[in-house]
C-alpha cells in the first residue's frame, strides 16, 4: 500500500520533472539571443521580438551614475549609465571601488526579465581622466603637434586598459572637432585646425577599440575583446566652426566647407569601425544638430552607412529649445526623429521615458524609428561580447596609472612641445639648458601644480588647480634632471629686485591658463591671465629666461616676446611633467610643430592656414628643432 502510493507519487514527480525539463529545453532553444554561436543579426531579431515598448525605450536611455542604482536599472530597463565630468563613486576612489559600482548597476540590468546588460560610458578624453591615479595624457592640441598617429594609437590602447581597469566599457572619445577659432573653450580638445591632421589622429579609434580584422566589413562597429572599449566620434558635426568660437553656438558655412573641413574625420572613424557618434550641441546654419534629420539620418546613417549608434550630448535634448527644457516633449520628438538612438538624459529619465512612450503610443514617432535605435544599440552590445562578459573583475585594476602608461605619457609630452623661440638673432641659443649651473630660478603659477598642467576634464569636469592627482610637476621634473649640485630655487611670483640680486644662472618661468572646460573656457581676448604677464616681466627683465606656456591654445604673447629669451608651448601636458624637463635639458630634442596658427592679435581671428589674409606670429607647422645632447 505504502509502496504503491510511493511508486505512484514517484511517477507523478518524474512526470513533472520531464515536463519541466522539456519546457526548459524548449525555452533554452528559443533563447537564441543568448547563444554566442548564433550570428548577431539573428540574436538581435530574436531579442527584439521579445521586447516590450518599455524595454526598448529603456535601452535608449542613458542616465548619470548619481541617479542610478540596482533598482533603477531594473525598474526602467536602463540601457546605459555614464559618469559625467567629475561624477565619481567617491573622491579618490580606487579602481576596485569603480569596478564594484559598475557591477552593482550591471547586476540590476542582468536581473531584468531579458537580462540585457548595460554599457557604462565615461569621458576618457586624455586618459581615464575622472579617475584618481589614472595616467593623464596630453590634451589633443598637443598630440596634434606630434604629427604622430602611431603614438596616438598607443595612447588609445593604454586608455582602453585604464578604462577597463575601472570596469568601464565605453569612452566618449575621440573628439574630432576641427577647431577653427582658438577663442573656443574646447579648442584643446581638437587635434588641429587642419582637417588632415584630425583625420590622421583618428588612429585613437583603433587604439581604443582594436583593429578591424582584415576580413571584416568596413564601417561596422567593432570592439576587439575585453581589453578594448567602445569609442565615440564627437561632436557631429561642425562643433569647431562656431562664430567667434562661442561654445554650442552656430556654425555658419556652406555645404562644401562643412564637408571639407568638419566632415572628413567622420569618414575615417567610420571606416575604422567607430561604434558610436555623439551629436553636437551646436547648430549648422541655424539648425540645431540635435534636430537635424538630414545630417544625422540622411547623411551619417544613410549616406555614410554608419552602423553603430548615435548618442545625444548631455541634456542635448533640453538644449534643442531656448531656454533649455522649454518644451521637453517637442525636444524628444525632434531629437529621436532626427535619428538619435541613445539619449544622454542624464537626470530626469522618467520624464524622458514618459514623454517618449507618449509620443510612440500616439504615433508621433513610428515604431520603426524605435526599432532602428534599439537594433543599433543591441548590435553594439552583442558585438562587443557584453552578453557573454557583462561583469568586470579586478584583474585589470593593475593597469590604472601603471608605470608603463606613465612612460608612454612622458614620451608623448616630449613630442608635444613646440619650441617657438630660442635666443635672438644675435645671442646664443638658451636651450638645451645647462644641467650644471650653480643656481637656477623656477617661477610661475604652473611650475608646481599638477591640476594646472592637466587642464580641464581632469578629476573634475572643469579640472582643478592644485595637487589633485598623482603625477610629476614640472618643478619636480627639473629637480630630478639637473646636477645634484645645482641649487633649484622656486618662487612662484618673485619681484624683479629679488631676481636681480640672487645671481641665478637663468630662470624657467612656467605660466598659463587656469583649468577650464567647455563654455567656461570661451575667451574673446585670449590674454594670458594674471599674474602670468607680471611674472614674465619681473623674471625675464632681470635674468636670462625660458618661458614655458601651459595653455589650451595660442594666447596673446607678442607683447612679451622681446623680453623672453626662449619660448616653449607645452599645451596641457597631463600628469607626466618629466617629459618637459627631458626636452628642456636636452636629453631629447624638440620636434613638435604647431597644429594651429599662432595669431598676433585677436582681431585677426578667425585665421587659419590657407586663409587669404594669413599674417601669423608663428605659422601653422612652425617649430624649432634641437638635437639631443645625450644619445639614446
Ligand atoms: C560634452 C561631451 C561629453 C558629455 C558627457 C558634454 O557636456 O559636450 O563632450 O561627452 O558632456 O560628459
Ligand atoms: C557634467 C559634464 C557635462 C556638463 C554639460 C556637467 O555637470 O558633469 O559631464 O559635460 O555638465 O553641461
TrEMBL record:
Pfam families named among the record's database cross-references: Glyco_hydro_3, Glyco_hydro_3_C
Keyword Signal attributed: yes
An MF annotation (GO) of this entry: beta-glucosidase activity
Source organism superkingdom: Eukaryota
Keywords for the protein's UniProt record, in alphabetical order: Glycosidase, Hydrolase, Signal
Secretion signal span: 1-28
GO biological process, one term: glucan catabolic process
Transmembrane feature ranges: none
Domain (Glycoside hydrolase family 3 N-terminal) ranges: 52-380
Classification via InterPro entries: Cellulose_Degrad_GH3 (IPR051915), GH (IPR017853), Glyco_hydro_3_C (IPR002772), Glyco_hydro_3_C_sf (IPR036881), Glyco_hydro_3_N (IPR001764), Glyco_hydro_3_N_sf (IPR036962)
Ranges for domain Glycoside hydrolase family 3 C-terminal: 417-625
Entry protein name: Lysosomal beta glucosidase-like
Organism: Olea europaea subsp. europaea
Amino acid at each position: 500500500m505504502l509502496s504503491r502510493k510511493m511508486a505512484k507519487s514517484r511517477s507523478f514527480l518524474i512526470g513533472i520533472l520531464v515536463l519541466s525539463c522539456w519546457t526548459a529545453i524548449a525555452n533554452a532553444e528559443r533563447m537564441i539571443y543568448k547563444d554566442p554561436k548564433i550570428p548577431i543579426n539573428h540574436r538581435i531579431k530574436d531579442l527584439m521580438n521579445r521586447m516590450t515598448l518599455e524595454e526598448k525605450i529603456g535601452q535608449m536611455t542613458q542616465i548619470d551614475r548619481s541617479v542610478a542604482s540596482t533598482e533603477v536599472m531594473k525598474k526602467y530597463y536602463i540601457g546605459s549609465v555614464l559618469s559625467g565630468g567629475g561624477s565619481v563613486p567617491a573622491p579618490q576612489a580606487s579602481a576596485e571601488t569603480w569596478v564594484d559600482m559598475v557591477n552593482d548597476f550591471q547586476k540590476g540590468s542582468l536581473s531584468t526579465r531579458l537580462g540585457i546588460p548595460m554599457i557604462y560610458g565615461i569621458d576618457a578624453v586624455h586618459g581615464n581622466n575622472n579617475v584618481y591615479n589614472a595616467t593623464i595624457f596630453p590634451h589633443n592640441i598637443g598630440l596634434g603637434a606630434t604629427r604622430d598617429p602611431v603614438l596616438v594609437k598607443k595612447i588609445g590602447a593604454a586608455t582602453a586598459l585604464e578604462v577597463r581597469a575601472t570596469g568601464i566599457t565605453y569612452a566618449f572619445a575621440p573628439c574630432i572637432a576641427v577647431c577653427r577659432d582658438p577663442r573656443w573653450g574646447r579648442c584643446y580638445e581638437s587635434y588641429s585646425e587642419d582637417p588632415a591632421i584630425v583625420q590622421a589622429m583618428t588612429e585613437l579609434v583603433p587604439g581604443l577599440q582594436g583593429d578591424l580584422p582584415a576580413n571584416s566589413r568596413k564601417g561596422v562597429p567593432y570592439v576587439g575583446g575585453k581589453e578594448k572599449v567602445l569609442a565615440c566620434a564627437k561632436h557631429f558635426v561642425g562643433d569647431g566652426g562656431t562664430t567667434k568660437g562661442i561654445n554650442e553656438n552656430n556654425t555658419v558655412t556652406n555645404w562644401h566647407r562643412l564637408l571639407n573641413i568638419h566632415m572628413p574625420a567622420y569618414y575615417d572613424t567610420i571606416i575604422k569601425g567607430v561604434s558610436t557618434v555623439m551629436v553636437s550641441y551646436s547648430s549648422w546654419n541655424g539648425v540645431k544638430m540635435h534636430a537635424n534629420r538630414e545630417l544625422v539620418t540622411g547623411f551619417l546613417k544613410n549616406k555614410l552607412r554608419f552602423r553603430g549608434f548615435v548618442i545625444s550630448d548631455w541634456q542635448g535634448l533640453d538644449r534643442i529649445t531656448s531656454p533649455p527644457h522649454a518644451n521637453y516633449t517637442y525636444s524628444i520628438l525632434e531629437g529621436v526623429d532626427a535619428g538619435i538612438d541613445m539619449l544622454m538624459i542624464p537626470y530626469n529619465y522618467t520624464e524622458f521615458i514618459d514623454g517618449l512612450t507618449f509620443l510612440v503610443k500616439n504615433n508621433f514617432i513610428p515604431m520603426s524609428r524605435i526599432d532602428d535605435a534599439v537594433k543599433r544599440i543591441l548590435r553594439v552590445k552583442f558585438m562587443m561580447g557584453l552578453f557573454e562578459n557583462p561583469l568586470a573583475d579586478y584583474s585589470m585594476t593593475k593597469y590604472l596609472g601603471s608605470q608603463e602608461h606613465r612612460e608612454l605619457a612622458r614620451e608623448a609630452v616630449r613630442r608635444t612641445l613646440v619650441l617657438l623661440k630660442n635666443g635672438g638673432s644675435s645671442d646664443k641659443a638658451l636651450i638645451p639648458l645647462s644641467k650644471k649651473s650653480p643656481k637656477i630660478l623656477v617661477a610661475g603659477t604652473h611650475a608646481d601644480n599638477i591640476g594646472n598642467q592637466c587642464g580641464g576634464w581632469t578629476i573634475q569636469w572643469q579640472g582643478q588647480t592644485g595637487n589633485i592627482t598623482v603625477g610629476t610637476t614640472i618643478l619636480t621634473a627639473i629637480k630630478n634632471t639637473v646636477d645634484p649640485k645645482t641649487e633649484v630655487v622656486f618662487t612662484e611670483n618673485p619681484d624683479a629686485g629679488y631676481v636681480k640680486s640672487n645671481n641665478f644662472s637663468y630662470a624657467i618661468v612656467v605660466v598659463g591658463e587656469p583649468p577650464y572646460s567647455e563654455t567656461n573656457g570661451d575667451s574673446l581676448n585670449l590674454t594670458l591671465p594674471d599674474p602670468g604677464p607680471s611674472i614674465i616681466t619681473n623674471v625675464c627683465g632681470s635674468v636670462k629666461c625660458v618661458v614655458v606656456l601651459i595653455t589650451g591654445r595660442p594666447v596673446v604673447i607678442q607683447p612679451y616676446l622681446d623680453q623672453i629669451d626662449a619660448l616653449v608651448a607645452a599645451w596641457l601636458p597631463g600628469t607626466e611633467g618629466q617629459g618637459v624637463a627631458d626636452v628642456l635639458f636636452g636629453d631629447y630634442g624638440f620636434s613638435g610643430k604647431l597644429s594651429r596658427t599662432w595669431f598676433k592679435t585677436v582681431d585677426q581671428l578667425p585665421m587659419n592656414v590657407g586663409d587669404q589674409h594669413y599674417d601669423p606670429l608663428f605659422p601653422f607647422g612652425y617649430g624649432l628643432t634641437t638635437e639631443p645632447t645625450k644619445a639614446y
